Amino acid sequence: MLESKFQEKLIREIELRFPGAIVLKNDSSYIQGFPDLIVLYKTHWAVLEVKNDRHADHQPNQDYYVGLTDSMSFGRFVFPENKKEVLYDLQRAFEA
Q1: Residue 94: CB atoms within 10 Å
Q2: Burial environment of residue 5 by CB neighbours within 10 A (0 to 12, 13 to 18, 19 or more)
Q3: Residue 1 three-state SS
Q4: Complete domains list, the chain, with CATH
Q5: Pairing between strand 37-41 and 22-25?
Q6: DSSP string spanning 5-70?
């Protein structure tokens, strides 16, 4: 599956799972390596770096920004193989 198609489906699933959530797509040319999506929900936020599979290459700085945002709130790499786990973790974080 193309990354763009997976990302599109993921955004729809997040919006269904978290009514009222705002999902923002980041401009990859603004901060090199910053994750693809920001999810705003009630008083919480998360960032997600979308990959089309578990073995997809990481661009420079992606690991840094996912780790940094995870230490601040919630940051993850998400791909079809771990989508259910990431969405479960995201739900737990948003309920905290």
Answers
A1: 18
A2: exposed
A3: coil
A4: 3-95 (3.40.1350.10)
A5: antiparallel
A6: HHHHHHHHHHHHHSTT-EEEE--TTTSTT--SEEEEETTEEEEEEE-SSTTPPPPTTHHHHHHHHH
Both structure tokens of 26? 């980041």
Phi and psi dihedrals of 49, rounded to 5?
A: -100, 115
In sequence order, the 6+-apart residues with CB closer than 8 A to the CB of 82 are 54
pTM > 0.90: yes
Tens of pLDDT, residue by residue over 36-63, are 999 999 999 999 999 999 999 999 999 9
Both tokens assigned to 28: 């990859």
Instruction: Return the axis-axis angle of helices 83-95 and 3-17, rounded to nearest 10°.
Output: 30
